[in-house]
Design the sequence.
């Protein structure tokens, strides 16, 4: 049953990665800014929710506080940093560097306030297990799958069924046309940054609920999620989510045939070869 | 020719005078530790341990009237960064002794310590290569080989475990731990049935644990430097049947307080704080006076004892003289008795078991 355990573990991890990938995809496809500070927003969401819990708020209320703070921080980053840089004619490379700097400031700020120790949420219900077909999954893992699928479905609904979602896709498709047809791309950018940041708060809470809170924990997750976004096809929500799950499942199942040292290298090696044959990603038009 | 000799004599005398601190001069030491990044959880505790010892000495008027100051530099546990910071401290600040942590950075700085005759004092890293990396690299904690020989022998002979699996951190300390345990356990007569690495800082141990559990070992040996409470949770979640064993890295108060760590056994390099010291430390820094601050407090007292001897003997405070003083003093009565027969200290090692949220000693192994 090792394969089943690894498969389920991969799906769970893939759903967490998928939420990060989808939220990053929404932002990147619309703004074209490589928002590295998304990793710091992911981390911040966990710490804010942890603080709210420690102040006695119930779990759901603490999560709402975390999501709201992340949305506000995302909007502020867009309005106060990226938009200003963009207006002053900064290239996307400059914005990337600014984002890297902001990420370092935020993560080190969190480490200074909360210490670099791995913090635990300490919610006993999170560690309780359920047996599924002979494999054991914790409540946190099950919740990650539920939230992951709901986030994917929600992002699809938002992008295809809401006015803002349609404006977002129009801006992503042709920013110049969007500008002259009064779609107000800059407002759309702020809204998308707020939505993407709110969305990334959910895995930012669920992953640490399972594995512990670390100030720098968002960086490796964002890195993998970025690969999923690019390999899935920039702008494709389905591509980002699906590829995140595929990467996580491959990383887990590869342990059946090779030691862990090789797992990450070979998984990403496969993607390098894949990108050679399909450089615009799996779901590119 | 005579003039040249005279000049050389005066230059040497001036050099000696320059490194001999004036009456009220502050003596500066250095520390290259991970103060940010994933390793900062340990690095900041190490920093506090050093600072606590220095503050204690300075509060009593310093050493023979000289205040001690430690210049802390952040290497993020990166070897390349450590080399730059070492050069900065030694070349610009003329620092005679530098505290270090983590095996990779310490090994990277070791050749520079030899070349520049600067005392490098490691109070926390345990890779075996540190033992003979440089005559100027002093380890105030035993390297892993000695500790894991004790553990492997105990598991095979006393606990009757014949098969083991290894979960190790994929860095210098983890790989050294894996190799030491593998060698000692097989030498004792046991068999290693599986081994898996985990990246440093990653607390998702499940895939590796699932694979190791499938090999059905009687005991799982773990050598990871952080994230042990998360490891305990995940071991219980997969309903593992094996015993869990580790080294001093298991002396994390959060792990000991975790009910899922019940029954874990581990070796423990002995280090105890006097009554009241732990409480005073916690009041000052808001964190526990746990293993790493204790070790670095001890390392700092070793260095300051050497400085005291040099000042008493009227010798300049140089790396070379500090090293000589260390071997002259040889036995230091700090938080633990630390004996230097070689560059690596010998201390007492205990076998402990975590039971009912307490770490209980089940066997004592005196220093060799």
Sequence:
């Amino acid at each position: 049953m090792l394969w089943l355990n690894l498969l389920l573990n991969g799906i769970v991890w893939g759903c967490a990665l998928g939420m990060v990938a989808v939220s990053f995809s929404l932002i990147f496809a619309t703004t074209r800014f490589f928002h590295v500070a998304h990793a710091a927003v992911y981390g911040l969401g966990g710490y804010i929710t942890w603080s709210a819990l420690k102040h006695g708020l119930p779990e759901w209320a603490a999560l709402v506080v975390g999501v709201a703070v992340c949305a506000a921080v995302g909007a502020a980053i867009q309005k106060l940093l990226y938009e200003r840089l963009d207006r002053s004619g900064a290239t996307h490379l400059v914005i990337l560097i600014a984002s890297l700097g902001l990420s370092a400031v935020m993560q080190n700020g969190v480490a200074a306030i909360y210490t670099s120790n791995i913090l635990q949420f300490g919610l006993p219900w999170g560690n309780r297990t359920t047996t599924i077909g002979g494999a054991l999954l914790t409540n946190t893992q099950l919740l990650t799958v539920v939230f992951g699928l709901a986030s994917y479905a929600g992002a699809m609904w938002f992008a295809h069924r809401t006015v803002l979602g349609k404006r977002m896709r129009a801006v992503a498709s042709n920013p110049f046309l969007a500008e002259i047809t009064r779609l107000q791309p800059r407002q759309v950018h702020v809204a998308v940054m707020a939505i993407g940041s709110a969305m990334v708060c959910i895995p930012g809470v669920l992953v640490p609920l399972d594995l512990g809170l670390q100030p720098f924990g968002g960086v490796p997750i964002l890195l993998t999620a970025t690969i999923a976004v690019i390999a899935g096809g920039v702008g494709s929500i389905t591509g980002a989510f699906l590829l995140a799950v595929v990467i996580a499942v491959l990383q887990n199942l590869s342990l059946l045939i090779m030691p862990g040292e090789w797992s990450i290298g070979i998984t990403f090696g496969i993607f390098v070869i894949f990108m050679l044959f399909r450089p615009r990603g799996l779901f590119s038009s | 020719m005579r003039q040249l000799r005279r000049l050389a004599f005066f230059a040497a005398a001036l050099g000696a005078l320059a490194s001999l601190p004036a009456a009220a001069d502050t003596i500066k030491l250095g520390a290259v530790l991970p103060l940010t990044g994933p390793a900062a959880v340990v690095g900041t505790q190490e920093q506090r341990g050093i600072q606590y010892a220095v503050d204690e000495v300075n509060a009593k008027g310093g050493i023979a009237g000289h205040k001690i100051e430690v210049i802390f530099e952040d290497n993020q546990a990166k070897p390349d960064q450590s080399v730059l910071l070492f050069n900065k401290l030694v070349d610009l600040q003329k620092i005679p002794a530098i505290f270090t942590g983590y095996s990779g950075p310490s090994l990277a700085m070791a050749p520079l310590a030899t070349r520049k005759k600067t005392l490098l004092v490691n109070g926390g890293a345990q890779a075996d290569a540190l033992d003979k990396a440089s005559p100027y690299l002093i380890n105030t904690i035993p390297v892993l080989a000695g500790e894991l020989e004790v553990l492997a022998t105990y598991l095979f002979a006393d606990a009757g475990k014949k098969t083991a699996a290894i979960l190790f951190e994929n860095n210098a300390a983890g790989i050294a731990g894996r190799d030491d345990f593998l060698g000692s356990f097989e030498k004792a007569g046991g068999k290693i049935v599986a081994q898996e690495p985990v990246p440093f800082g990653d607390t998702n141990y499940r895939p590796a644990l699932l694979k190791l559990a499938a090999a059905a070992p009687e005991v799982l040996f773990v050598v990871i430097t952080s994230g042990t409470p998360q490891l305990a949770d995940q071991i219980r979640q997969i309903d593992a049947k094996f015993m869990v064993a580790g080294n001093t890295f298991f002396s994390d108060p959060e792990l000991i307080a975790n009910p899922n760590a019940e029954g874990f056994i581990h070796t423990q390099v002995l280090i105890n704080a006097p009554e009241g010291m732990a409480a005073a430390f916690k009041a000052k820094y808001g964190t526990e006076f746990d293993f790493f601050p204790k070790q670095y407090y001890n390392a700092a007292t070793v260095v300051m004892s050497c400085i005291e001897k040099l000042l008493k003997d009227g010798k300049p405070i140089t790396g070379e003289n500090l090293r000589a003083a260390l071997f002259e003093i040889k036995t230091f009565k700090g938080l633990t008795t630390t004996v230097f027969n070689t560059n690596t200290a010998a201390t007492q090692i205990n076998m402990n078991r975590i039971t009912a949220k307490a770490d209980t000693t089940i066997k004592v192994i005196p220093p060799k």
